[in-house]
Amino acid sequence: MWRASLRETSGPYPGSEAVAQGMFSRAMPDDSLLAMTRAIVERVATGATGAFVASKELVAHIRDQRLGLWASMAEENTEQARLCKTDDYAEGFRAFQEKRAPVFNG
């Protein structure tokens, strides 16, 4: 629906409307954009990047292959099992037990 509306008007599309239509996750004033972007980048850069990449690839694979529910769950289980063997997983688990922020290495 929003694609047709955007095509027809070809003009500016209000941020709040774009969020309401599911085009974006949030809208914010121009003067907040840089600070918010930097905060998100910092969170991603210090997070479990291997898990982020695996998640993105898994979603793309499920979408591209049009996998059903059970096949999708099987793929996710396989990927989760692989990720459980990584140093980042061990660090996340340790940090949780020690009630501290994890330090991931990717």
Q: What can you tell me about this protein's structure?
A:
The protein is an all-alpha fold. The chain is 69% helix and 0% strand. The longest helix is centred in the middle third of the chain and has 17 residues. The termini are far apart. The model has no long low-confidence stretch (mean pLDDT 88).
The shape is flat
Largest sheet: none
Query: How many H/I helical runs?
Result: 6
Count of DSSP strands = 0
Order of helices and strands: HHHHHH
Question: Quick recap of the structure?
Answer:
The chain is mainly α and 106 residues long. The chain is 69% helix and 0% strand.
Secondary structure topology:
Blueprint: H1 2-9, H2 15-20, H3 30-45, H4 49-65, H5 69-83, H6 87-97
What keywords describe this structure?
106 residues, mainly alpha
